[in-house]
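Give me structure tokens for this 106-residue protein.
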Amino acid sequence: MRSEKKQDSKYAEVDPDIEFVGKITNFIVSPVAPQNNQVPSANRLEITINVNFIDNKHEKSKWNSNFTFFKDFSKDANFIDVRDKLASEIFDQLSEDVFNRAFTNW
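Here you go.
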């Protein structure tokens, strides 16, 4: 992670040992578990992120991967009402997945 330190009221960039560069590549709501009459019993929010891990100390440790996680929610729920909570839970899991991938071999 890039950090800065304060020196005499000026900021100087510190060269990081590692960096994460990422973006959201998929954010989709879709119906799941259709019943016999083809009406879904739930909806699913699925988020995919792409992360580029840069290890400035160990060139061979660099990687680029996609991570996906989803949460289902009631078909009767208004997506706007549940979106923030679902996204937060999904991003918590995605963060853990990225952390585990990055630091498993340390």
